[in-house]
Write a structure and sequence with these properties.
single chain; 698 residues; alpha/beta; OB fold (Dihydrolipoamide Acetyltransferase, E2P); Rossmann fold; six-stranded parallel β-sheet; 41% helix; binds adenosine-5'-diphosphate; binds magnesium ion
Length: 698
């Protein structure tokens, strides 16, 4: 139940003075949603994006042009329009000069009343020079001395919608602000004081009634405080949900090291420091009676799969089974092919299960999972959708999570309720977004690449130079290189794109004969598998593919990546694609073939690709270039929308809020302590009601 102290904020905006049906309709469009109208709280939390500064005062002779100024003068004359459509003018003067006020919407009686000849008036608006004379077209304000004395010199500017005038919205916000109840302080008081943060009410007033332009800037103390309030509410909600899950469902899975040490011994390489650290964290989570909810984040090629395998080996030691879930069949089979020999060497029993298995194999796998003779199963979401039962499922690893939709995430949570959960993502989501997308998870990061990797040389070529590109690829193939050639699927008609890929395939076939293969999403599974297998084994040198290879495909011998129409891809996607090469010891190349002329953003993307291979740098740039909502995968993942916090500016606060929320819930899981009541108010204020309901009497 919402604390009653918040009631005045959760009434409809129509209850406010000055908000009639027409204004209300505009406010609903701006701040409401299909299921509810705009409310007082929405207005209170609708922050200005900038200000109009009316504090610049000057004599007419010295007044700066082309900006907003406030002038004081005596009204000298009215110039009635000569023709019907001509403007009405009034001239005001001071001892240094004069200024013509121009009114196009001819309303003589209003002007005569507002600007009587001989009176002293203050006018505020944008000053211009026209035909050698100062003029102000439609001053924003025309005031006498009394009105001027109470005029705010700095005026907030709000995001608007059609049919809503700035002053009308400003008044509605002001009326809403007057209804702000006295709320308890939910922030830690000593820290608030230490940082010079105002109280919640003071902060809102400071932002809605700025006294200087800096007051509405994102770094202003009031804005920081408000952003932190919102972030703390969201992180507290996640922490409460998580606490519930972890406490309810946890099982201690204590690994012995017996199996995983054998797997490790079978590896043809040594683990990186990051892989080791991630495994330590995973094993500690497993051994604790709390349920693991961990995100393993690692750039493409950082070696996540082997971490998953070793985690599964540890789970086997603890006597339970593991499932590794891949987003596509190709990937599931590839994982299985790589994992099976290593696992087999350590005595782990592994199986694969996708939608494509033969009935007999499938039945055998299902039986093995049910009686516990299979220790690790690799598969697609078929694992969880088609009546598969496990004897004791201890660990679920989800690879490339961003390909899974929300619905699948939910089924997964149902099926593997008691299981430890490890989510692996190669999408280099910036730290700030990890917390909002996966905020309820702990994070392990693989920041270093395995040793011996060489940098990838990235070049951009115009499509006109296609012959050069083909010739360069020809030389590489002659030297034994293996080449991915990516044709995008981007137009409305998938069919037209396939035709493009097929055309390219035939053109390259003329050049390379039977050393080219084609792979795309419409092909039947076995055909795709055989194309992939030929490329992996080296029977083929060039693999022409649509973006089906974007996620996870691993052929360490591939060293050249050609991307056609590179200008059509987003940065994150280009990075994922490029990550398919540079995995072995050979020097690798990435050729970005673009069609000119390119748009500005496309050019910036391609420059960025040439400048860096660092997935995190690229992801941050992607965020800037595209806006956070468009970052691959975040749209489907139910990213919360913040009203007050700006993730690019307030990202640090987000991490802080997460830490504080975890501490608060650890100390006082039911929020019953002295701060608890105020924190409940905070949760409801930001409408985290679902989380608040987890609390006793919440
Ligand atoms: P990703 O993180 O993109 O899923 P993979 O798990 O596919 O990366 O690993 C990429 C390649 O690096 C694979 O060929 C894998 O065998 C290899 N690899 C993984 N860890 C190491 C390591 N510590 N040293 C050398 N090579 C490694
Ligand atoms: Mg992978």
């Amino acid at each position: 139940m919402r604390p009653s102290v918040l009631n005045p904020l959760f009434v409809e905006a129509t209850k406010l003075r000055g908000v009639g049906p027409k204004v209300a309709a505009a406010l609903d469009r701006l701040l409401g949603s299909p299921s509810r109208p705009a409310r007082v709280v929405d207005l209170v939390l609708h922050l200005p994006i900038s200000v109009i500064d009316r504090s610049t005062r000057a004599k007419m002779r010295d007044a700066p042009r082309d900006q907003v100024v406030t002038l004081e003068g005596r009204v000298r004359e009215h110039l009635a329009p000569a023709k019907a459509n001509a403007p009405f003018k009034a001239v005001i003067e001071d001892e240094t000069g004069d200024c013509t006020l121009v009114f196009f919407r001819n309303n003589a009686s209003w002007i005569e009343k507002a600007l009587p000849i001989g009176s002293t008036r203050f006018v505020s608006g944008k000053l211009e020079l026209w035909d050698g004379r100062l003029q102000m077209v439609h001053p924003d304000r025309v005031m006498d001395a009394d009105a001027f004395a109470t005029m705010p010199l700095v005026e907030p500017v709000y995001p608007l919608t059609e049919g809503l005038f700035p002053r009308v919205l400003g008044k509605a916000v002001e009326a809403a602000l007057e209804r702000l109840p006295d709320l308890p302080e939910w922030q830690d008081e000593p820290r608030r004081v230490l940082r010079g943060w105002p109280t919640f009410a003071e902060a809102l007033r400071a932002v809605h009634r700025p006294s200087k332009p800096g007051d509405v800037e994102a770094q202003a103390p009031a804005r920081l405080r408000l952003a932190y309030d919102e972030l703390l509410a969201s992180q507290l909600a996640l922490a409460l949900v998580r606490n519930q899950q972890v406490v309810d469902d946890g099982v201690a899975h204590v690994p012995t090291g017996a199996v995983s040490s054998r797997v490790e011994a079978a590896l043809p390489f040594r683990l990186t420091g990051g892989q080791r650290k991630a495994l330590d964290e995973i094993r500690a989570d497993m051994a604790s009676p709390r349920r693991m909810l961990r995100l393993l984040q690692g750039d493409v090629g950082s070696g996540k799969t082997v971490v998953a395998l070793l985690a599964a080996a540890s789970m086997m030691e603890a006597g339970a089974q593991s499932a590794l879930m891949a987003p596509t069949e190709i990937l599931a089979r590839q994982h299985f092919a790589r994992i099976a020999p290593l696992a087999g060497a350590a005595g782990m029993r592994v199986a694969v299960l996708t939608g494509r298995d033969k009935a007999s194999e499938r039945a055998a796998t299902k039986a093995g999972l049910e009686d516990g003779t299979i220790d690790l199963v690799v598969g697609t979401h078929a694992l969880f959708s088609e009546g598969v039962t496990f004897r004791d499922l201890g660990l679920v690893v989800v690879d490339e999570q961003h390909r899974f939709g929300v619905a699948q995430r939910l089924t997964l949570a149902e099926k593997g309720r008691a299981a430890e959960l490890l989510v692996m993502t190669a999408t280099p989501i910036p730290r700030t977004l990890v917390l909002t997308v996966f905020g309820d998870m702990d994070v392990s990061i693989l920041s270093e690449k395995p040793a011996g990797r060489q940098p990838i040389v990235t070049l951009a070529k115009p499509a006109d130079a296609m012959e050069d590109v083909v010739a360069a690829v020809g030389r590489a193939v002659a030297n034994g290189a293996r080449v991915y050639w990516v044709c995008p699927l981007v137009t409305e008609s998938e069919h037209a794109d396939l035709v493009a890929a097929e055309d390219r395939f035939r053109a390259l076939e003329e050049y390379f004969g039977d050393r080219v293969r084609l792979m795309h999403g419409q092909m039947k599974g076995p055909e795709r598998d055989s194309a992939m297998a030929d490329f992996a084994s080296g029977r083929a040198s060039v693999l022409v593919a649509t973006t089906v290879i974007e996620v996870g495909v691993d052929v360490p011998e591939a060293s050249v990546m050609v991307i056609e129409h590179a200008e059509r891809f987003g940065l994150a996607q280009l990075h994922q694609l490029r990550g398919r090469v540079g995995r072995g010891a050979a020097k690798s190349f990435c050729l970005l073939v673009y069609k000119s002329p390119m748009g500005k953003t496309a050019e910036q993307r391609i420059d960025m690709m040439r400048d860096t291979e660092d997935g995190f740098v690229i992801a941050e740039a992607d965020l800037r270039l595209r806006g956070e909502g468009e970052l691959i995968g975040t749209k489907q993942s139910g990213l919360p929308n913040f009203k007050l916090a700006l993730l690019d500016v307030h990202g640090k606060l987000l991490e802080e809020a997460r830490r504080e929320a975890a501490g608060l819930v650890a100390d006082d899981p039911q929020l019953l302590g002295p701060r608890g009541e105020a924190l409940r108010v905070l949760l409801h204020l930001f409408e985290r009601d679902a989380a608040a309901r987890l609390l006793q009497g919440g």
